[in-house]
Amino acid sequence: MKSMSLLFLKLGIVAFGGPAAHTAMLETEVVAKRNWLSADSFLELMSITNLIPGPNSSELVMAIGYRRYGIKGLFVAGISFLLPAMMMVIAITVSLSWFDFDLLTTIGVALTPVIAIIILKALFNLIKKQEMDVKGFTILVAALILKYFNVDEFLIIIVGAIIYIAWNQLGAKLYSVEPFSLGMLTLAFLKIGATLYGSGYVLLSYLETTFVHQLGWLTYPQIIQAFTIGELTPGPVFTTATSVGTMLGGIPGGILATLGIFAPSFLLMILIMPISHRLLANTWVKQALKGIAFASLGLMFYVALTLAYQSMGSLALIIVFVVSAIAILRFQVNTMYLILAMPILYSVLKMISL
Prior knowledge:
Elements: H1 2-14, H2 19-33, H3 39-51, H4 56-94, H5 101-128, H6 134-148, H7 153-171, H8 182-195, H9 200-214, H10 220-232, H11 240-272, H12 276-281, H13 283-310, H14 315-330, H15 335-351
Helix pairs in contact: 1-4, 2-4, 2-5, 3-4, 3-13, 4-11, 5-13, 5-14, 5-15, 6-7, 6-13, 7-13, 8-11, 9-10, 10-11, 14-15
């Protein structure tokens, strides 16, 4: 239990880049390095977490914790992963008046190539271990194309499930300003956490609707500021909620907002994980999850390609991309060292005008 807690605490400190990058890091740590799960089991858990609302990478951490140590493991894993991010976001938001956002932006840009390589490596590891037949390849490519045309992620994974099942069967409001209160803040984030499917950019839309239009507590620039903090700090992007809560209600608001948005995920995972083996024993459910797994790989591939494309924006970023690729793919360098070193390399390259 201690080793698991330390692993997820570490990931909570260094896991930049959003759900796809977090999933890639988890695959490296729990499948490739520690052999806690097989590749198939890891993909099954990915599929389960993609079916329910909330932050997928955090739910995947909880699912891994449950597989290791039951309900207690679920809580220890989830809290270990979320706690560092929550504390960092509260600290940065409280310090907004003096914090250097240019530094945060530089770090985020410099880590883009590193994250792209991490995702690509994990993606190819997972694909190699899958039975990548015509069905799987078709779903992966379809997910990639649908995402390119900005189709919602939840619809994409449902399409993946339907295609896989069908293929197998054939082959065999009103807006008003409300006074602020911590209770209303918590309820607002409970609702978001219980109903949100998709990426952090979907969260941005939810926040604008709830806190700008419905409640009238924040302006859109303030929402963007909170989202920037959530995106450029390690851990789940959903800690944007922590920043919003801190802006509105100080440190108590930040803590309650975090509890609100993540509590539904803990509850859903507590309900689903004890029956996951029975769900997976059902042929139709298993086929649906297989389709979702291939669609999820397609979505990961899209994120990796997007980040790789963004890494071609300057000679400095291209150099960081190449160095990261060689370090990770050829020399198996620990990604934590690269996360610490690449912003420094990028800053040096910018200083010499590369």
